[in-house]
What we know:
Layout: E1 3-7, H1 11-23, E2 28-33, H2 45-49, H3 64-69, E3 72-76, E4 79-84, E5 89-93, E6 99-103, E7 106-109
Parallel strand pairs: 1-2, 1-7, 2-3
Antiparallel strand pairs: 4-5, 5-6
The structure holds flavin-adenine dinucleotide (FAD).
Amino acid sequence: MPRLFIVGGSDAGISAALRARELAPDWQVTVAVADRYPNFSICGIPYFISKEVPEADNLAHRKADDIRALGVELLLGHRVEGIDPAKHLVTERNANGETSEHRYDKLIIGTGATSIRPPHFGP
Ligand SMILES: Cc1cc2nc3c(=O)[nH]c(=O)nc-3n(C[C@H](O)[C@H](O)[C@H](O)COP(=O)(O)OP(=O)(O)OC[C@H]3O[C@@H](n4cnc5c(N)ncnc54)[C@H](O)[C@@H]3O)c2cc1C
């Protein structure tokens, strides 16, 4: 079975996984998520901090079980640490410190971004 491996399980990673399941149901789709909160509304965090949303779980667009029920293999708490494009292998480490390798046919990286502060705005 061809295998799609996705690194990152937030907006980009889960959107890609669910669309892949629609377009290519014969592919195995695996998503590795460094944290334990797949498909959370990051945009909702201010409302959780202000207590307008009382429970952090309410920020989930979909729960892990909902995503798994759509045929996506979810690896929660698994941080990808290496990619070997020549061998089509990713290496990830789980929360217990154990490492595993996964073969892929196609790879999608959806690990987000880090903001920068341009120097002319000062410290
Ligand atoms: C406070 C706040 C409010 C916002 N409000 C809005 C809004 O109103 N409207 C809007 O359009 N956008 C908003 N955004 C922006 C929006 O949240 C981001 O554009 C969106 O979350 C980006 O999604 P992403 O999947 O690309 O990355 P992220 O959401 O950053 O997710 C990255 C994913 O990659 C995983 N990951 C990272 N490294 C690894 C690794 N090595 N191995 C495995 N997994 C890894 C993480 O665990 C996570 O699952 C807001 C952002 C913030 C912080």
